[in-house]
Amino acid sequence: MRKLSLAVAVSILGLALVAPGASAVIVWGNNASFGNVTIEAFDLDTGALMQQFLVPNPVAVDGNGRGIAVVGTTIYYTVANSGDIYITDSNTHADLGTLVSTGLGGISCIAYDGTDLWITAYDGTNNAYKYDLSGNLVGTVLGFGNNRDGFEIAGNHIITNNGDAVGPYDLYDLDGNLVQAGFITTNYQPTGITYDGTNYYVSDIFNNAIEVFDSNGVFVRRQVLDGPLPIFGQRLLEDISVLGNVINNPPPGGEVPEPGTLLLFGTGVLGFFGVRRKLS
Questions:
Q1: Longest dimension (CA), the chain
Q2: What are the structural domains, with CATH classification, of the chain?
Q3: What is the per-residue pLDDT across 123-162, written as a single tens digit (0 to 9) for each?
Q4: pTM as predicted
Q5: Separation between Cα atoms, residue 167 and residue 211, nearest integer Å
C-alpha cells in the first residue's frame, strides 16, 4: 500500500482550515420570456451557469418572468401578468404552489428583508407591499412608482430604479424616505438588482452580463455570463437574487467552523496518516 507523506497530510489540513470560510457568490435570475419562463443560477466568480430550469408551475411557465427572491433553498418567483407569488425548491425544482394571490395585476419585483418578502407591482398605485412568509400582508410603503423592475432590500435600506428599465438606482430608508439619489448609475437599461451584504449585483438585461458595485455604489467589475441560453433563445434576467444580505439568509458555506473544531479535525487528519504509516 502506498504511503502518504506528511507533506500531503499538512496540505489536506490546510484545505480543512481554509475551505469552510470560502464560498462562491451565486446569483439567481428570473428571465423575461413571454412563455417558457426560466430560472437560472450563476457563479459570479466565473460567470458559469450552475442551474437552468423552467419554472414548475403550469400557469407561471406560460407567463412573462419577473421577480425572484431566494430564501435558503426556497425560491419565490413572480410573472408580469399575475399577482401570485409562486414557490419552488432550488434543489428539487418541485412546484410548491402559491404563497399568496395578492390580487394585483402583476408583480414586477420581489425581495427579502430577512423576515418578510417585499413586492412592487404593475398596479398604478406607486406602492411597495410587504408579505410575511405565510402570505399575510403586513405592510405597505408608499411612493415607489409604477412598473419599477429593479428593487432590493439592502440591509436597512431600499434600493430601486425609477421605472421599467429607467435609472438610476436611488437609496431609501425602509419607510420610503429618500436617502441618496443616483446611488448607482449604469450605462445601460437598469433592471434587476440584488445585494449580498458586501456588493450590489445589477443585471445588464440585454447584454448577458451582471455588473458588480461595492457597498458605496462604486463600480467594481463586469461579469459576462456563460452556459447555454434558455430555451427561448435569449437571456433576459429581469430580476435577480443572492443569498447573504441579512443574518438569517446567509450565503452557502457562510458559517465558519469554530477554531477548536478545525484544530480537532486537523489533529485527527494527522493522526490518521500516522496510523496509515504504521499499517502500510
A1: 76
A2: 23-252 (2.120.10.30)
A3: 877 789 999 999 999 999 987 766 788 999 998 999 999 8
A4: 0.82
A5: 15
